[in-house]
Structures are given as structure tokens and as C-alpha cells.
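> forwarded from #structure-qc
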């Protein structure tokens, strides 16, 4: 009687494929100071992304290309 090895949890690639199919949305630069922004939220219905500036804290929205 032999014990079969269980398939590894990460060998199921369905979830990974879905993640790779997601559009890559990168934060743009702050309109006030030109600093790096980080992505706050993405509104797929309105096709906008909300960002916050790391340097000055300004929040702004821009369209997702
Ligand atoms: Zn800024």
C-alpha cells in the first residue's frame, strides 16, 4: 500500500492566471509637487484611479488608460 503525494497547493495555477490577466495600473506623479504617488483605490466603473502623494499628501484622480 503506497501513499500518493498530494498535489502542492501552489501547483493549481487558475488563480495565478486570473491575476496575470488583470490590467496593470500604476500610480502617476503628483500634480502638485511631481512626487511619487501611491495607488489608493481603483474605480473600474468610472475607469479612474485615486492616488495619494507620498511627499505632500495630495489626493487626485486620473483616468485609467
Ligand atoms: Zn505631492
Amino acid at each position: 500500500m503506497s501513499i500518493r503525494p498530494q498535489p502542492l497547493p501552489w501547483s493549481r495555477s487558475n488563480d495565478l492566471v486570473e491575476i496575470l490577466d488583470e490590467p496593470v495600473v500604476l500610480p502617476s506623479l503628483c500634480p502638485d509637487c511631481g512626487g511619487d504617488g501611491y495607488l489608493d483605490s481603483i474605480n473600474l466603473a468610472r475607469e479612474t484611479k485615486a492616488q495619494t502623494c507620498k511627499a505632500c499628501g495630495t489626493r487626485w484622480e486620473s483616468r485609467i488608460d
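QC bot note: Residues 23-63 form one domain. The CA atoms of residues 13 and 19 lie 10 Å apart.
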